[in-house]
Amino acid sequence: MDLKLLFMSTLFGIICCSSAQQEGNECIKANALSCGECIQVGAKCGWCTDTEFLKQGEPTSARCDELESLMKRGCDAARIENPHGSQRILKNKAVTNRKKGAEKLRPEDITQIQPQKLSLNLRSGEPQNIKLRFKRAEDYPIDLYYLMDLSYSMKDDLENVKNLGTSLMKEMSKITSDFRIGFGSFVEKTVMPYISTTPAKLLNPCTGDQNCTSPFSYKNVLKLTSNGHQFNSLVGQQQISGNLDSPEGGFDAIMQVAVCGEHIGWRNVTRLLVFSTDAGFHFAGDGKLGGIVLPNDGRCHLENNMYTMSHYYDYPSIAHLVQKLSENNIQTIFAVTEEFQPVYKQTPAMLSISSKLPEGVTITYQSHCKNGVVNEGESGRKCSNISIGDEVSFNINITAQGCPKQGKPESIKIKPLGFTEEVEILLNFICECDCHKQGIKNSDMCHNGNGTFECGACRCNKGRVGRQCECRKDEVSTEDLDKNCRKDNGTDICSNNGECVCGTCECKKRDNPEERYSGKFCECDNFNCDRSNNKLCGGTGTGSSFLFRLRIICKQCIITIYISLPFVSQLTLMKHATGSSCLRECVQCRAFGTGEKKDTCERDCSYFNLIKVKDRDKLPQPVQAFPLMHCKERDANDCWFYYTYAVNNTEKEVHVVETLECPAGPDIIPIVAGVVTGIVLIGLALLLIWKLLMIIHDRREFAKFEKEKMNAKWDTTENPIYKSPINKFSNPNYGRKAVAL
Questions:
Q1: Which residues of 355-422 form beta strands (DSSP E)?
Q2: Which residue in 117, 448, 711, 712 has its CB near the most CB atoms, within 10 A?
Q3: What pLDDT, on a 0 to 100 scale, did the predictor assign at position 244?
Q4: How far apart are CA 425 and CA 434, in angstroms?
Q5: Can you tell me the distance from the alpha carbon of 635 to that of 598, in angstroms, rounded to the nearest whole number?
């Protein structure tokens, strides 16, 4: 095995230590009732603190919206609460640039990872990015413990290991001048699988004339030492043992190596554990085969360097090993035969540190390794082929969702596996807005002090609801209050577009933040006006010397034309969405002789000049130096007509297309609807007829049955089909004299 490969990868893991331990617009859907609730929804959400921001019918939760939408709705950017996360570096000691042969440093004086401590303020949904540097220091101390399977099948490997100490010391001297090596061995629990064997078999489990040592669970043969010759001497004295099943008890041995630091001699330096075997492993639950049911306690049980509780505690689980190896900063390397490589290839991934993060916190990694290699996802946690003196970096994004642990601080630690150095990250969560600090408790603005006035709105006390906390929760649906939410006695509550809360309508929200209900009874909206070019009220437009602005107020399109000419200030035109405006009726009567004003056309509609054109291409376009409005209307016969309205100095001009655009034939939709309706009605009629016939048939059959039952003629004392089970036979010789023989 190429020993240089033992130090060729660095894997970053997480240890969590608790200090206390769209579709659609997500901001609108959250129905946040306070600024704090709003900013916890996501990083896109802001809260408008302007006290005059809400329109009639809009609930308090309408203050929470995406930033762009809030500004479009008229909230000044200075009145929007939108806190951001931040970070501070608390300890930032530079990595050590030390060459081999330089002045010897203590391990605690060597720095390989930077920075060492940070503090993050996390806003929900907003990642905080930190960059970590890692540099393999020259001449950094290393402890290596060799743990070997001494079952009979490893006999040849033991001969090779006997000279390993000297070779390792020679190779490691090229990497570090401070290297120590130790040795341990394992076989299997003595209580299993030898339960049915004889004592002689326990003393020498090998067959034939092979001299083997009795089986044992784990033995610490040599404490970590810098004496390579002592390693060779003690390993040379080891004898193989035997086992009756293929899996070995190696996990028992790994656990003891991890938790028995004083016995092993681990220092606070790079810690490596080489695990050598040619078989699989037992794990938690297998101990039941030998009657062992107590779970492994994860404690040291070495006496005279022997594991003494193998008969008492079960094997450890993989998760338990992960925890203990992580706590003791031990990196495990598996040296196994080709047959079991697929099994153990999965084990390093299982033994990588994956401790639980604080609730609501996620971490992603991006590694920048040698030769410009960039990895992301799970691969972003590691860099391979790191040699002495190499430097790599990791970009780490830490994101919180909501307000974990009610805002209590948390901490996590990030460290490279096999090293004792770590980065401590303190996590603080932004759960409230800055304006929360200026809140007025029991404010008069919240209906006799029934809430706290903060961030431009009332945050109601427990049991109170309403924009001003004016109602108790148990009275929000009373009949008297509902009357105040009806436009008249015959209409739905809040026009069926909202809910009645404390006698006031709170209008429903739409998935599209640009669309809203409003009005005292939620009777208004800004998305049901007539459309032109698929834009509400024709949308907005600009000309060379004027600007169109569009507002929609309670189903009315308010178009304001701002003119840059010095002699014209501003012109406002109102066009009703229902199409009953005076201008449309006048154009209709003068151009086509139809409409409601056809009888009074000359009297009411002579205030503009009418000019007919052949088609829409001939209509004026907005390039001249006076305001122009394009219109598209529909008459009572579903025919469309197009015209423009302009004010040229003091003259008002209307250009209209002289022909109507009417449907080519009858509207297919009503026809199809009529056909479908007819088919449905016919089907229902046939179904009713069939049901009626079945009822009549069933009644006739029942009457026939009753009649036949009454006319039955057989004798009721004897069943005509009854047959007795008793048969009588006569003996023909009965009563005759016996015949003499």
A1: 361-368, 374-376, 382-384, 391-400, 410-416
A2: 117
A3: 57
A4: 24
A5: 13
